[in-house]
Amino acid sequence: MIKQTTTVQEVVELLNDLTKRDREGMETLVNTRVSVEAPIADHSTVQVMVHKADDGRTLYLIGALGLLNGLFGVDESTGMGAIAAVFGVQCPKCGSDDNDGRVVGDNCSDCGEALVLGKLQGFALTNVAPLVFDDDDIEDIWAMEDDNGGDDLYLLTCRDRGLIGGDTISIVSIGDYDGNYTVVNVSPATDGFVRITLRLL
């Protein structure tokens, strides 16, 4: 059946499903851009990269993500499209990619070298409004104890909605657990469900 309409969340979920199936292929796809003419660069919603060539020419480059973002418009306050590719960080010296919470330019936790852009992790919505989960989405949730003895970590089993680390969600209608959380990590659970570690915001 051909769908006549789709939502930005459905597109993000599709992209994340494809990334789970073939991360390297999706990374190549999202990093591939072709040269287009200025009239496409002037489009009001399609995202185009402007690049100055060594010979002084201005090049306009577009990729798959720029086209997809053209479907959903631009945030007037940020100028960003609705969908972002999320990359990790990696150490160019020792190869470590275990640098949770660090960004490009920070020092590697293993050897101290400045971190560079790493592998594609997935895709996320760029808007600041959190994805809302209620009792129809959630199978189970409980508080965990973190390494520092606090209890601001939670383990959530819920329907797979394409979340990745760093996303923000809002839980409603679950009583004591209502609130805003950031996703720490996601792992598969049963069919159609995932287990998510959350940190209370």
Task: Give a structural overview.
The structure is a single chain. This protein has 201 residues and is α+β, with helices and mostly antiparallel strands. 18% of the residues lie in helices and 35% in strands. It contains four helices and eleven strands. The strands form three sheets. The protein has a six-stranded mixed beta sheet with strand order 6-9-10-11-8-7, with no helix packed on it. Strands 1-3-2 form a three-stranded antiparallel beta sheet. Strand 9 (168-171) and strand 10 (179-188) form a beta hairpin. The radius of gyration is 19 Å and the shape is globular. The model has no long low-confidence stretch (mean pLDDT 83).
User: Strand-residue fraction?
Assistant: 35-45%
What oligomeric state do the depicted chains represent? single chain
Instruction: Report the C-alpha radius of gyration, rounded.
Output: 19 Å
What is the overall shape? globular
Order of helices and strands: HHEHEEHEEEEEEEE
Describe the protein's topology.
Blueprint: H1 8-21, H2 23-31, E1 33-36, H3 38-41, E2 49-52, E3 58-63, H4 64-72, E4 83-90, E5 116-125, E6 131-133, E7 138-144, E8 153-159, E9 168-171, E10 179-188, E11 193-200
Helix pairs in contact: 1-2
